[in-house]
Design goal:
Layout (H helix, E strand, L loop, with lengths): L16 H6 L10 E8 L6 E2 L7 E3 L1 H13 L4 E7 L11 H14 L4 E6 L22 H18 L3 E4 L6 H11 L6 E8 L6 H7 L22 H14 L3 E5 L5 H10 L4 E4 L2 H12 L5 H15 L3 E3 L3 H9 L4
Parallel strand pairs: 1-3, 1-4, 1-10, 4-5, 5-6, 6-7, 7-8, 8-9, 9-10
Antiparallel strand pairs: 2-3
Helix pairs in contact: 4-5, 8-10
Bound molecules: ligand PBG.
């Protein structure tokens, strides 16, 4: 068929893998991935998380083995989630995860970088990310921030490289930056879950951390502290605010359902931007793959590429430990 202009031929650039590879405008690199890990005080041996395919909860000992294995697959950055044995309403006992950091440092030194997820939802009996008022009808902001900042300092002392608060209280970045600096930890970075939406896609994670909110209280969702899907501007303002308070890395979470927010934040700031492909987003692909409705690795790579195209610099994925191999095998 006679073309109207040279420009009308779009198939030349799609003709074979070589030219498709050359013409690509985005490339993935496993070095920009972070691998989440779960360390659970209530188990005696590594336990598969039934809601998250191929992801395990670890004891401190099996965590060290998991990290050693991940290093072999090119993973050097981790995000660690603790699951404590005991849940309570206040006076939380953080000693288990502190012990985990000490073991990690003793075993791996500076060869890996570990960000500490900082939140109270795995510690509270009601599953909320902060402490509640007397009649259990509201999450208290400043009282929660104080506990979270003290916890962050203990994590820094135990050897966490980066503090990653995911609680979404106001003023926590300022409080954490201040307490770290006052105690000589001005070199510890803060990765803020700054644009964290109240989402359906955290379901499998809450299973793993036993942190579904609503037990023993009057509030059954996180809508009074996490951003609304219907208000993207709030998430952007929350991110700018966290940068002003001292965040070094900001984050959009979930990733796939909020690509527009990733793009807008990237346009507004040069700060490093992480995107968290969360548990429900990960597990959607895993379930489709189990039914042979998608090819697993290509589906993950396709989504990672979308996240990168939107503007993320860093990708947090439960499949990060596969990134090196899957990226090597990309069929352009
Ligand atoms: C809570 C927290 C959540 C995740 C990380 N930290 C979920 C929540 O708000 O309940 C979700 C991660 C995922 O779904 O993969 N502080």
């Amino acid at each position: 068929m006679e073309s109207q202009s040279y420009f009308n031929n779009r198939r030349r650039i799609r003709a074979n893998a070589h030219i498709r590879e050359l013409a690509s405008s985005v490339y993935l690199n496993h070095k920009e991935f972070i691998q989440p890990l779960f360390v659970d005080e209530s188990i005696n041996a590594r336990t598969p998380i039934s809601s998250l395919n191929e992801v395990n909860s670890d004891t401190i000992d099996s965590l060290l083995l998991q990290i050693a294995s991940d290093i072999k697959f090119g993973v050097t950055k981790f995000l660690l989630f603790p699951v404590p044995l005991k849940k309570s309403n206040n006076n939380f006992d953080f000693s288990f995860v502190l012990k985990a950091y000490e073991s990690i440092r003793a075993n791996f030194g500076d060869s890996i970088w570990v960000a500490a997820d900082v939140c109270l939802c795995a510690y509270t009996s009601h599953g909320h990310c902060g402490v509640l008022n007397k009649n259990k009808s509201a999450v208290l902001n400043d009282a929660s921030v104080k506990i979270i900042a003290d916890y962050a300092l203990q994590l820094a002392q135990a050897g966490a490289d980066c503090i990653a608060p995911s609680d979404m209280m106001d003023g926590r970045i300022h409080a954490i930056r201040s307490i770290l600096n006052e105690n000589g930890f001005d070199n510890k970075a803060i990765m803020s879950y700054s644009a964290k939406f109240s989402s359906q896609f955290y379901g499998p994670f809450r299973d793993a951390c036993k942190s579904t909110p609503g037990k023993d209280c009057l509030i059954t969702d996180r809508k009074t502290y996490q951003s609304s899907a219907f208000n993207g501007n709030d998430a952007i303002l929350s991110t700018i605010r966290d940068i002003e308070e001292g965040a070094d890395i900001v984050m959009v979470k979930p990733a796939l359902a909020y690509l527009d927010i990733i793009q807008k934040i990237k346009q507004q700031t040069a700060f490093p931007l992480a995107a968290y492909h969360v548990s429900g987003e990960y597990q959607s692909i895993e379930l489709l793959a189990q039914q042979q409705l998608v090819e697993r690795s290509n589906a993950h790579v396709e989504v990672w590429t979308a996240i990168k195209r939107a503007g993320a610099d860093i990708i947090i994925s439960y499949a990060a430990r596969h990134a090196q191999n899957w990226i090597k095998e990309i069929n352009y």
